[in-house]
Amino acid sequence: MKHGLAGRTVLVTGAAGGMGRAEALALGAEGARVWVADLAEEGGEEVAARIRAEGGSARSARLDVRDPAGWRELRDRIGREDGRLDGLVNNAGVSHRFGIEDTADEDWRRVVDINLSGVFYGMKYTAPLLRGSGSASVVNVSSVAGMTGYFAAGYGASKWGVRGLSKVGALEFAGAGVRVNSLHPGLVDTPLLRSGPDDFVDESLRSVPAGRVAGADEIAEVVLFLLSDASRYVTGAEMVVDGGLTSGGLYHRITGALREGGER
After folding, report:
1. Interhelix angle for 105-112 vs 153-173, to 10°?
2. Could you give the residue numbers annotated as active site?
3. Residues 119, 165, 80, CA angle at the centre, nearest 5°?
4. Which residues contact 75 (CB under 8 A, 6 or more apart)?
5. How confident is the chain (264 residues) per 10-residue block, as mean pLDDT?
6. Is 134 left (phi over 0), alpha (psi -120 to 50) or beta?
7. DSSP readout, 32-45?
8. Buried b vs exposed e over 190-223: b needs ≥16 C-beta within 10 Å?
9. Whole-angstrom distance, CA of residue 124 vs CA of residue 129
10. What is the DSSP string of 17-68?
11. Using the 8-state DSSP alphabet, how is residue 8 labeled?
């Protein structure tokens, strides 16, 4: 329990699978009181049950992050059972790999509602509980798509929105001792990454200096840091965890192509 999170109450959205699952399990192992929230009730309860079986404390809750009423209901339940919230991980998100002209109107609304409005509602409706902690931390999961130009219209726009909204939250909540940061993972080995064609991942890896995708547990470690007192002076920041993907930009790809050309 190296992050000092034992006894703290933390809510993770989208926690039934992928990065959210890894984050919830890591928090449970740290001794935190974990709220496992997801639209997939069965998957969320499976994660919560595993945390309990391993000696931790966890409860599951069905949550559609697009629904303000659902957020209010969950906030009230956490208030009754725990009285405060020490950490919020707005992790729930969906992928959509289409450009402006090819994005259907309904897909635009769906992606923005889940990826961006879900983060807004999370901070808005849990704010009273976060303020009550006195030293709470919010981690809003964005993406490297929120750090650079990206080919997917709805996804890129929503992740840039999360980045900007996190800065608004950092300013607004600082006086209450609540920190807000955005997390920008690169390629992470989750079902979300693998939801597209295999050649998308293979081609993307050509631009990652580290030469591999991240494990969900590696992202969870950074989330624990941002939730812990070790990051107590970090707020309004973008934490990029991408194996160097965005550090070289276009030039990494160009120099790689030149090396390959020289070998032929």
Report:
1. 30
2. 155
3. 40
4. 125, 126, 128, 129
5. 91 98 98 98 98 98 98 98 98 94 97 98 98 96 93 95 98 98 93 68 79 93 98 98 80 55 52
6. left
7. -EEEEEES-HHHHH
8. beebeeeeeeeeeeeeebbeeeebbebebbbebb
9. 10
10. SHHHHHHHHHHHHHT-EEEEEES-HHHHHHHHHHHHHTT-EEEEEE--TT-H
11. -
Query: Would you state the pLDDT for residue 259?
Result: 60
Q: How many residues does the chain have?
A: 264
Res 146: pLDDT: 94
Q: What is the pLDDT of residue 264?
A: 43
Q: Rounded to the nearest 5 degrees, what angle is found at the Cα of 170, between the Cα atoms of 169 and 171?
A: 90
Residues 6+ apart with CB under 8 A from 14: 20, 37, 38, 65, 91, 92, 93
pTM: 0.91
Asked if 105 and 146 touch (Cβ cutoff 8 Å), the reply is no
> What does DSSP assign to residue 233?
T
Amino acid identity, position 103: T
Residue 14 CA: distances (Å) to CA of 18, 135, 146: 8, 24, 19
Cα 167 from Cα 96, distance rounded (Å):
25
> In the prediction, which pLDDT does 179 show?
98
